[in-house]
Structures are given as C-alpha cells and as structure tokens.
Amino acid sequence: MDPLILSQWQFAITTVYHFFFVPLTLGLGWYVAILETIYVRTGDETYKRMAKFWGKLFLINFAMGVVTGIVQEFQFGMNWSEYSRFVGDIFGAPLAIEALMAFFLESTFLGIWIFGWDRISKKLHAATIWLVAIGSNLSALWILIANGWMQHPVGFVLDNGRAEMVDFGALILNPRAWFFFWHTISSGFATAAFFVLGISAYHLARKQNVEIFKISFRLAAIIGIIAVVMVGLSGHAQGIQLREVQPMAAAASEALWETSDPAPFSVVAIFDSTGKHEVWSLQVPKALSLLYYLKLEGEVQGLNDLQAEYTAMYGPGDYVPLVALTYWMFRIMVGVGLLMIALAAYALYLPLRKWPEKWMRPLKLLVWAIALPYIANSSGWILTETARQPWIVHGLLETENAVSPNLSAGMVLFSLIGFALIYAILMVADVYLLVKFAKAGISATDNDSAAPSFDRIQD
C-alpha cells in the first residue's frame, strides 16, 4: 500500500497497454499507403480493396491507441507532480510539438482518408494516408526525444531544483533518442509485417481470396525480413551505447557482477527470491566483450564496482535495479527476435519457391506468430524503463522523489484498479474487433476484379 509502488504499477500497466497499439499503428499505416499507391499507379481495383481491408484494421488499432494514450498525460499531474515540476521546462517543447504538429497532422488527414474515398482525386487521397503515416511516426519521434532525455539528459542546467533547457539542438539531436527512434520504427514495421503475415496465412490456409492474400503475404514477407534485421541491428547499436551512457543498466541486463576484461556472456541464470543475487549461471567466456567491442577483449564494468562508483557520486543508496527482471526481459526480447528472423525467412521463402505445397502446411503457425512482436515490444519496453531504476531521470531525479506529495494509497489503489479494468475491457474490445474483421476477409462485392500478379508491384 505504498503510494510510490502503486503509482509505479499504475503507470506501468497503462504504458504497457498503450504500447500494445503503438507499434502496429506505426507500421501498418505505411503498409496501407504502399497498397493504395500501387492502386493509384496501376488502376487495379484489387489494391484498393486491399488498402480498404488493411486500413479498416489500422483504424481500429489507431482508435484504441489514442484512447489509452490520453490517460498517461493526466498521470503526470496526478501521480508524478514532482517529476512534472522537474522536467516541465524540458518536456514542454517536444510534447507541445508532438500534439500541435504530429498528432493533429495524422488525425486531420486520417479523417480525410476515411471520408474521402471517391470524393477527392485518387492521388490526393493516397497522399492523405502517407501524411497519416508520416504524422504517426513524427509523433513517436517527439515522444522518444522526451524519453531519450530521461535516459540521457543533455542541453540543460539545474536551477532551483528544476531542469531548464538551454540547448534545444542538443535535445533533438540526443543520440539516445535517435537510437530509440530507429529501434521503435523498425519494431513497428516488424509488428505490422507479422500482423499482415498472420492474417494472410489464415486466409491462405483456408483458401479464401488466395491470389489477393498471396500479394499481402509477399509484401509483408519482404517488409518483415528487412524490418526484423533492422530491429536486431538497432538493438545491438543501442546496447553498445547503453554501456556508455547507462553502464549500470547494461551490467544489470547481463547480470555482470564483477568488472571483467574480457567479459563473459551469461546465457542463462538463476536468481534468489530478491531478484538481485545470482545463484547459478551458464556463461560463454569472452563473448560479452566480443559483442561490445567486436574483439575478444575489452573491459565491461560490473554491478559491484558501479554501485561503489554511484555511491561516491550520488550519495548512499542502492543503485542496482532488479537484475532478474532486466536480465530476463532482455533475453526474452532477443530470443523472440531471433525466432521472428527465422519465421520471416520462411515467409520469404514460400513465394520465392512458387508456394510448394509441403511448405504451405505450417501456415497456420504464422497466425500465432502475430503475438511474437507484441511479446518482444513489451519485454523491450519493460527492460528500458526498469533497467535505469532507481532513476526516473538518469543521474538527476530518483523515482521515489518524483511522486506527488500527500498522495494517499487509497486514491492510487482505486484509480489503479479502475484503469486496469477499463484497459482490460478496451483490450478485449480491440482484439474482438480485429479478429472479427480480419476473419471476415476482403468482401467479394467490393469493386471485384482479378488479382494481378506480383510483377505489377515490381514494375
């Protein structure tokens, strides 16, 4: 019944719920834009039907994302007023730009796209969905610029216990933010690709609109393999930078207790009930140094030395995060990512080999693979936000000092239960609607025409 712990749980639950919808919005908008552009170029009504079908699913997901995102902003004032007071001068600019430019851009042109079919020219209508996709990704950029500052504060001074921005250029060019953006957008494309692959595989396995869903499947397979590889590359680059700007978080994600040169890589570990002490681990010698330095040597700081260093720098306290959580979130994220690479390669293989019958049988498995990017996204987000604890703004403001004063446990518990129930209902509604319309497929009455060959896309 600690207001701090309850507030952390409340924000964690609402954030994880919200982030279920964000990656699909970021990626699926581009997918719909590509399909409608092909329709405009070729005049083939099949692509119009496909754009409408995937666009319908995009709209359901977008609406849920907006609803779940609004609540988080209110929590800054209700539960985290000390945090808001501390970062207000920094966050004001990027969040205002996100709302006034990016969100209004995507919302306005999404309305035109919904109601503009056959009312405005084809090219102008296609342009609106491109602007929606651009707007949603710009929105993510500005939010990640704000979050990147929390992870690696730059371009500021401290004045009367508040952080004040003195260099807007440093804020928007913060490398941490751009690594986040690269990783998040790649994850969005991967999420959308597996979403399209899974639904297309469902209809292909049931031989429904086969030629049409083969096109969706092929396009998603191409986007998917590129996106998943980009997720891996951006994640590795982000991990290398993490060792430089947040060495404690990097050491916690690897459960590296002692500073080592060369450093071993822990494949699997068992922790005690506190989650902060290792009982047993299986390690590969020198492998962690290889990952960080691309050679079999190189020092990596351990948790024990970093704890002593942070104590000398910031004063007495426990600066080691919950190691078991960060350790396993990292491995779940990486493990699921490797599985996604294998499945994306399999999906790409099918159309290249003219859809061999024996390879078509496991298509139903790709329906369940829709869940994989959601697992990877959630574990990655949890890793990012918990590995920097006890800091809410790294090196500047601890989480325990960011909560609103005089906040009663009863108030937070009541809102926590309320938000959890409402979000659960929204999640059920979202999944129900997505499943319902995904299973319905592409209507045969919608401007029916023969499905074109994939060569038309390449042309």
Oligomer: single chain
Briefly note the structural class of the backbone.
Answer: mainly alpha
| Domain tally | 2
Strand order of the largest sheet: 1-2
Q: Report the span from N to C terminus.
A: 63 Å
Mean pLDDT: 86
H-E order: HHHHEEHHHHEEHHHHHHEEHH
| Structural shape | globular
Rg, please?
24 Å
Low-confidence stretches: 447-459
Would you kindly provide a written description of the structure presented here, covering whatever features stand out?
With 459 residues, this protein is mainly α. It has 2 domains: 3-246 and 322-458, no CATH class; 255-317, no CATH class. It contains 16 helices and 6 strands. The protein has helices spanning 3-42, 45-78, 81-115, 122-151, 168-172, 175-205, 210-245, 247-254, 287-293, 303-314, 323-352, 357-360, 363-368, 371-387, 409-440, 455-458, and strands at 156-159, 162-165, 265-271, 278-284, 391-393, 397-398. The strands form 3 sheets. The protein has a two-stranded antiparallel sheet with strand order 1-2. Strands 3-4 form a two-stranded antiparallel sheet. It has a two-stranded antiparallel ribbon with strand order 5-6. A hairpin with a 6-residue loop joins strand 3 and strand 4 (278-284). The longest helix is centred in the N-terminal third of the chain and has 40 residues, at 3-42. The protein is globular and about 70 Å long.
